[in-house]
Design goal:
Helix content: 40-55%
CATH architecture: 3-Layer(aba) Sandwich
Radius of gyration: 14 Å
Order of helices and strands: EHEHEHEHEH
CATH class: Alpha Beta
Number of helices: 5
CATH topology: Rossmann fold
Distance between the termini: 9 Å
Strand order of the largest sheet: 2-1-3-4-5
Number of strands: 5
Shape: globular
Largest sheet: 5 strands, parallel
């Protein structure tokens, strides 16, 4: 299953990669974008789409808010599962994410072990339990 990780802070991206790798998600299944423009480039490119997006909200340039808005406005991407994974606990950000049809809102915890627990939950639900809409279904 291809996962697009949208994270602008290098150390957070490294920790998340390590946590995902630690729970069995291979590096070749991960695609990284370090800002909103790069995320949209991945999503708007020809070729296979990721089956899941892990989206930080606080991004330079094109914000995660705008990425979510544009994903939901694009008929080709409208049903793509998007999990907001951010440090923000702002009720405004939570409300914004859900009003723009984010599939989940998860606060990034501090430290590797709590982040590993989040990675485990993401793996267990999105990769093992959920049935995704076509064309996002994992092909086996």
């Amino acid at each position: 299953m291809k996962v697009l990780v949208v994270e602008d802070i290098g150390s957070d991206a490294i920790l998340l990669r390590e946590a995902l790798r630690d729970v069995g998600i291979d590096d070749e299944d991960l695609v990284y974008a370090n800002d909103g423009a790069a995320a949209l480039a991945v999503l708007e490119a020809d070729g296979p789409l990721p089956q899941l997006v892990l989206l930080d909200l606080n991004l330079p340039g094109i914000s995660g808010h705008e990425v979510l808005e544009r994903v939901r406005a694009d008929p080709r991407l409208a049903q793509l599962p998007v999990v907001v994974l951010t440090t923000s606990g702002s009720p405004k950000d939570v409300a914004y994410a859900y009003s723009h049809r984010a599939n989940a809102y998860v606060r990034k915890p501090n430290g590797f072990e709590p982040l590993r627990a989040v990675a485990t939950a993401i793996r267990d639900f999105w990769l093992r339990t959920a049935t995704l809409p076509s064309p996002y279904m994992a092909r086996g």
